[in-house]
Specification:
The protein has 385 residues and is of the alpha/beta class. The protein has 15 helices and 15 strands. Bound molecules: pyridoxal-5'-phosphate.
């Protein structure tokens, strides 16, 4: 008996760089600043809240769109922070992490042959999700100037065709650590005004914006919010990336289509975490205090590299710090990241991994969502180069 050959739906997809670099880091005993996750635990009160929900018998299927308590807590929070009142019943759906929210938004909106503009470098799930929907990813590269990365909106505008169905944005931005500002949202609004183009806004780092700057949520922008799926993740906000729970907010007509797909690609997210998180959200302190928490780690990491041969790029948001290494090596990024892991024993991620086609910028990404001791161990090694 032989297994029938399968024609791959995703022929270009292999093992992700995060898996490869984490394996290499483990093999060489390197400090892992590669994959983006905290090496410290979440708040014990959050674990208690989920455990309480389980003990209270909240262990059966929740409503398809999410526990009403959690949707209400999300709606209240978004309204308080960004001034848009999403209807918790019709406009918010709890998802299995931001990843499932993203693929579901794409699957419900993108038809075969539709074009979706993505701004590279970008999170690795966007393009495979578009391809699964039969869509065509249209990458537009970010501009890399003296002051770091920004989005060239003129080039985004030039990439729009009659087939453009959606534009995907991400702020704060992984991997670059850049953020969109009001002027960026206005530029995007000018591009989509008078068209049927939808916006997918990945805002999983919404609470990691530094130096007193405001998160420019698409939900804050009335023109964009009317046509946007806004995605967030409790994994990032509450230091529980392994929980894989997040949500999507969108105007009712978009959310109705979203739920048709969500109903069959997931149906619903586990019940106790929804109730636990809903209870935990009553206290805004955990996300209110997050910018200060991570800004201190960012500053510690930047100060440690300030005297090194790495050139620091601006880091306005996320828990990532990008650096140029041109003064150290002329190696391509993937090779440099491997060398760094093997020889210096600090793992990083090559930014080239976030492009669909080969793009070398001489930049790698470090994750600073780590205990101070972890950061200091990495800095001691990096400073010796
Ligand atoms: C981590 C991450 C996600 C995925 O979030 P999950 O809740 O773990 O699925 C999506 N987008 C970006 C930019 C991320 O960094």
């Amino acid at each position: 008996m032989t297994t029938p050959a399968l024609q791959s739906r995703l022929p270009a997809v292999g093992t992700t760089i995060f898996t490869l670099m984490s394996a290499l880091a483990a093999e060489h005993g390197a400090v892992n600043l590669g994959q983006g996750f905290p090496d410290f635990d979440c708040d014990a009160r959050l674990v208690d809240a989920v455990a309480d929900a389980m003990r209270a018998g909240l262990n059966q299927y929740p409503p398809m769109a999410g526990a009403p308590q959690l949707r209400a807590a999300i709606a209240a929070k978004v309204a308080a922070l960004y001034g848009r009142s999403y209807d918790a019943h019709a406009e918010i759906t709890v998802t299995a992490g931001a990843t499932q929210g993203i693929v579901t938004a794409i699957l419900c909106a993108v038809h075969p042959g539709d074009e979706v503009i993505v701004i590279e470098p970008c999170y690795d799930s966007y393009q495979p999700s578009i391809v699964l929907a039969g869509g065509v990813p249209v990458p537009v590269p970010m501009r890399l100037g003296e002051h770091g990365y920004d989005v060239p909106w003129d080039r985004v505008a030039a990439a729009v065709t009659a087939r453009t169905r959606m534009i995907v944005v991400n702020t704060p931005h992984n991997p670059t650590g850049s953020i969109l500002r009001q002027a960026d949202l206005d530029a995007l609004a000018a591009i989509v005004a008078g068209t049927d183009i939808l916006v997918l806004s990945d805002e999983v780092y919404e609470h990691m914006v530094y130096d007193g700057q405001q998160h420019a949520s698409v939900s804050r922008h009335p023109v964009l919010a009317e046509r946007a799926f806004v995605v967030s993740s409790f994994g990032k906000t509450y230091h529980v990336t392994g929980w894989k729970i997040g949500y999507v907010a969108a105007p009712a007509p978009l959310m109705a289509e979203f739920r048709k797909v969500h109903q069959y690609d997931l149906f619903s997210v586990n019940t106790p975490m929804q109730h636990g998180i809903a209870a935990y959200m009553a206290d805004p302190a955990p996300y209110r205090d997050l910018p200060a928490f991570y800004q201190r780690k960012r500053d510690l990491f930047r100060a440690g590299l300030a005297g090194s041969r790495f050139e620091l790029l601006p880091a306005d948001g996320t828990y990532f710090q990008c650096v140029r290494y041109g003064a150290i090596s002329a190696m391509p990024e993937a090779q440099f990241a491997q060398w760094l892991t093997r020889e210096v024993k600090v793992a990083a991620i090559p930014v080239s991994a976030f492009y669909g086609s080969p793009t070398e910028s001489g930049i790698v990404r470090f994750c600073f969502a780590k205990q101070d001791a972890t950061l200091q161990a990495a800095l001691a090694r990096l400073a010796r180069i």
